[in-house]
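Standup notes, structure subgroup. Blocker cleared on the flavin-adenine dinucleotide input:
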Amino acid sequence: MTVSISMTINGSSVSADVDARTLLVDFLRVNQRLTGTHVGCDTSQCGACVIHVNGKSVKSCTILAAQANGADVTTIEGVANGSELHPMQEAFRENHGLQCGFCTPGMIMSALDLINVNADPSEQEVREWLEGNLCRCTGYHNIVKSIQAGAKAMREA
Amino acid sequence: MYSFDYKSPSSLSEAVAMLQSSDDGLLLAGGHTLLPTMKQRLASASDLIDLGGVSELRGISVSGDAVTVGAMTTHAEVAASSDVRGAISALADLAGGIGDPQVRNAGTIGGSIANSDPSADYPAALVGLCATVNTNSRSIAAEDFFTGMFETALAENEIITSVSFHIPKCAAYCKFPNPASRYAIVGVMFADCSHGMRVAVTGAGPSVFRVSEMESALAQSCAASSIADISISADGLNSDIHASAEYRAHLVTVMAKRAVEKACASC
Ligand SMILES: Cc1cc2nc3c(=O)[nH]c(=O)nc-3n(C[C@H](O)[C@H](O)[C@H](O)COP(=O)(O)OP(=O)(O)OC[C@H]3O[C@@H](n4cnc5c(N)ncnc54)[C@H](O)[C@@H]3O)c2cc1C
Ligand code: FES
Ligand code: FES
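Run returned:
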């Protein structure tokens, strides 16, 4: 079955006809060519596919594109201001919060949702929040440091 | 995933009608159990009826001695609700300990209990807090609702609309989580309420169960020490790569003691 969907992605309205089975992550990557959102597992575990739907972080591999009909979607591509990195992205760069970078888009989208609910998270709160984001490279230490630095920069901005 | 027709009702009556007129329709709530299962082709449906647009199934209300949570309320909403925390902090704690933040933003109480996963957290809350499951056609006591592993008392085409929890004098939930998924290897909800003492266990057996021996001991003296020597039999408990039945039996006493200690500290 084909369904007609429309949503706002990073501030632009998009409409498309898709197979009802289309996952939101595939709609973003294949249909919209927004390949910053990654697929690490496709089994809801790794968090590489985390985006925001109506301001809340979700795993885009575990939601149908049709479920986001009418929603406001933000992906990693919508975070920077033109060529100026978002303070959270800048903090990951400054603090070596990434190595291969595969997990980074999901980490940043997850971190930004944390800051929405807790502007000044402790190290423990960051670690608990990252329960659903796996990184195979960094050992998490610098990711936690980056998120705390990014949170500070956002508070001071 | 096998192909299906996607339906998006905007009211409960429309959802019921769509379910009744479909050959083999399934309800879609947060999708965090159903979509992974469909991806593996372990489940399929002629129609997926998405409850996401049915606003009457969302929301939390407190009245008299009950907290009522709409079926489509997410785990994150329950965890963050000051009404829930004020009335039953153990319920907010339980919801805040499910999976990870993204799972909590999507998964719903209705989807969780309809699935009746033996290691899901909510079944312990429903049975421990003497809850009632409300559907489009009736109300079912929590103890009659969970009938077995992945089995419930729901009839064909029945839709859960809300769950009403009885507000206890004090309660606490403690779980030993699977370190990868956070599902309960064993989770215990202890509550002291007007119905008496309740000790409800999830994760250990095929379905949630009460430990009456512990409940009687706690009625005599409400302290962790009164149940320290009570152990349950490993017969019939779950056994898998994460934990043997014997280990789960041991964890039931450990988690029950912790839950009683935590509840007493806040009482
Ligand atoms: C990585 C990960 C970790 C998780 N960790 C935990 C955990 O620690 N503890 C835990 O308890 N759970 C955990 N879960 C499960 C999670 O809580 C699920 O969201 C939940 O079990 C199912 O809820 P859902 O809203 O996603 O339902 P769906 O997947 O949409 O639906 C599940 C089933 O319920 C049916 N259904 C849905 N709504 C209704 C309704 N209103 N009436 C009747 N039937 C209905 C559907 O048809 C389907 O058969 C985890 C899931 C994932 C992916
Ligand atoms: S790709 Fe979605 S959680 Fe791993
Ligand atoms: S930087 Fe490589 S997976 Fe995280």
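Discussed briefly. Residues A 98-103, 135-138 surround FE2/S2 (inorganic) cluster (ligand 3) (CB under 6 Å).
Next: hand off to the docking folks.
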